[in-house]
């Protein structure tokens, strides 16, 4: 599923929130019926837990806590550490080098899906897997597929009811700082200086204003690309994951915007599912949502 800081902030029209809410409720029903006893969550970070001074392409958390950005729930996740180490070892055994964090800070990218599906971020044991999708340069998209496949094979060998989640937008280009940002912002995204309360407030206001102006068509942000979003979703829905190996990072930025690289969380999640064989999509939602600055999609899928 997609995420958006705007989901927890004032601005988006009630009809849009209701529409997205219905899609999330359908996913919640599916998850409730499945009743997972373990969640593995592929999610990006937006300079709340991972910083340029040491930016791994992937990182498995053996303990994690939500930072509470954009009004999301803060506090500890229930991470089964031994299992998380096993998951990292499975990735290494498949030649995918993941980092390990014994104290991972996670943001709305991780917390929103947990809150949407379970109501509480500590409701189920969860292994968070950070997938760098924002801090360029990025690993090739193929690496996300290989990571997901390795983790999927490991999970298939456990006697657990596992829910694999991917969290990220499709085409979208919200205002996210980068290495060309001013020095005080670099302090934060390179060295991880925690934002002051005032700075957090200012970022929140900036995102609200950006979304309003984007929805009016006056923002200097790359437009959403529903056609590209459909192409991504078709590939995922049809299980044609290996095709994505040919997609370049430059092409993804060009077509979908700077944050479209969050599709690698979807790719990792579907690759993990595909490790058990062909899969079938159960529930399905897509809507270009400028008020959320996101091509917003939800999918649930099961092995055939
Ligand atoms: O440091 C900042 O101000 C970051 C802004 C930010 O966190 C934006 C996040 C947007 C998404 O998560 C998204 O649309 O995927
Ligand atoms: Fe994001």
TrEMBL record:
Record has Disulfide bond as a keyword: no
Keywords annotated in UniProt: Aromatic hydrocarbons catabolism, Dioxygenase, Iron, Oxidoreductase
Pathway recorded for this protein: Aromatic compound metabolism; 3-phenylpropanoate degradation
Protein EC: 1.13.11.16
Keyword Iron: yes
Cofactor(s) needed: Fe(2+)
Catalysed reaction equations from the record: 3-(2,3-dihydroxyphenyl)propanoate + O2 = (2Z,4E)-2-hydroxy-6-oxonona-2,4-dienedioate + H(+); (2E)-3-(2,3-dihydroxyphenyl)prop-2-enoate + O2 = (2Z,4E,7E)-2-hydroxy-6-oxonona-2,4,7-trienedioate + H(+)
Enzyme active site: 108, 172
Top enzyme category: oxidoreductase
GO BP terms: 3-phenylpropionate catabolic process
GO MF term list: 3-carboxyethylcatechol 2,3-dioxygenase activity; ferrous iron binding
Entry-linked InterPro entries: DHPP/DHXA_dioxygenase (IPR023789), Xdiol_dOase_suB (IPR004183)
Record-annotated Extradiol ring-cleavage dioxygenase class III enzyme subunit B domain positions: 1-296
Family: Belongs to the LigB/MhpB extradiol dioxygenase family.
Quaternary structure note: Homotetramer.
Purpose of the protein: Catalyzes the non-heme iron(II)-dependent oxidative cleavage of 2,3-dihydroxyphenylpropionic acid and 2,3-dihydroxicinnamic acid into 2-hydroxy-6-ketononadienedioate and 2-hydroxy-6-ketononatrienedioate, respectively.
Name used for this protein in its record: 2,3-dihydroxyphenylpropionate/2,3-dihydroxicinnamic acid 1,2-dioxygenase
Organism, as annotated: Parafrankia soli
